Amino acid sequence: METIEETKEYIGMWVTEDNHVRHNLLPNGRYDEARGNTESAYQGKYWVKRNHIDYKDDTGFTADGDFKDGILYHGGMILYKKED
What we know:
The chain has one helix and eight strands.
């Protein structure tokens, strides 16, 4: 079974069920996070290793998460891949 790092399936928009938090994981290793009505609330870099993701925003704040069964678990939140 391939990891999400190998398949690159992490690239794209991940959203909470209520669509309040939206992580756009860009193919260039950058992310853009929106919260509520605030677009680009946080921006920075991310790294994926196997099924784990590490974030570092442009202010230096760090966070991480894990992909499991097509779901991103991050900072107590559950995010789902938004299909186009």
